[in-house]
Amino acid sequence: MGKTRPELVIQSNSGFQSVAGATPAEWNSALSAAGADPSSTAAFLIIAPSERDCDQFRGSAALQGNIREISVFPLRDSSELARDWSELPPGLAVRCAPPEDDAVVMVPLDRLIGPTSDGVSFRDVDSPIWDWLIRQVDGGQVLHLGNAMRGNPEVPPVRPPLAPADVGRGRRWLEVQLADRSLVDAPASPADAVALRAGLLIMHDFLEAGHQLAQSIEGQGRHAAGDYWHAIMHRREPDYGNSKYWFRHVGSHPVFAELAHVAGGLLQPLEPSDAAAWRSRLHRAGTWDPMAFVDLCEECAADAETPLALAAREIQWQEMRLLLRQTYRDAEGRTR
User: Fold this and answer.
1) Which of 32, 84, 150, 288 has its CA at a distance of 20 to 30 angstroms from the CA of residue 244?
2) Domain termination site, one of 145, 164, 181
3) What are the distances in angstroms from CA 217 to CA 192, 197, 198, 259?
4) Are residues 189 and 323 in the same domain?
5) Helix, strand, coil % in the chain, rounded to nearest 5
6) Which domain holds residue 245?
7) Ranked by mean pLDDT, which of 84-93, 227-236, 266-275 comes out on top?
8) Phi and psi (nearest 5°) for 177?
């Protein structure tokens, strides 16, 4: 299941025009040409996961407003993206996941070209839009979170694999963006601030770099977040026995209750033969059983595209998002 090319459309006084080309250089050329067109006054670049999502957005109420900031409109009412942006600081939220995978992004054209632009265009990396958005937030630009879109997105989001084969190779730009920045100012728990950096790296498949950070804070933090991320790293490596070892260090954790509920909902639509036994095992004794989830990931390793394996990937992604938000709260010294 690969990542698809996003749909880019310019909305201007003269209507809608698709941005030609499939590379960042071609996008930059097309956008420069659009910026030179007198009809591009108050124009927007609309970025969506698919053509249908873009068409749906073009008919929505969002285009009726006078939006002058970069705006993100989640494609699902229950979008984790919306929670990230409401609960985390912008510099951390924008690094959680590519917004264009799970939302429509609307950019005033003059933010890309013209007097209010910083002159930085899309770079030739594997996720040029995400890279550009991170650089905008780091430069002080405000990203406005709009209301969730109605309807079902055409393209389901692609979640990280249970055990990545590439282990972050070829994405040096992202590793730099994740590791070379302080994400919490004056943390109440410095160990959890380190765990936050480790978590971002592990979420995005930089397992060795995340491993080194997590290992450096063994047993530390308000809820042993470094040990939890350490356990996830080994589960994804995969080294299932070592993962269980570190989950025994974690013990109980604040994310377990919500994670059990999330996992139950994701497994519910599957065939009973696939899901019933696992739902029972994962939610044992009224709480989440991380050891059972290690077993599920191991069972799914043989075929990563079965319905059960895809559900496991979604559970893992939700687990990492929940844990990242909890790690941030712990670093800040917050209870909720």
Assistant:
1) 84
2) 145
3) 8, 12, 10, 24
4) yes
5) 55, 10, 40
6) 172-332
7) 227-236
8) -65, -30
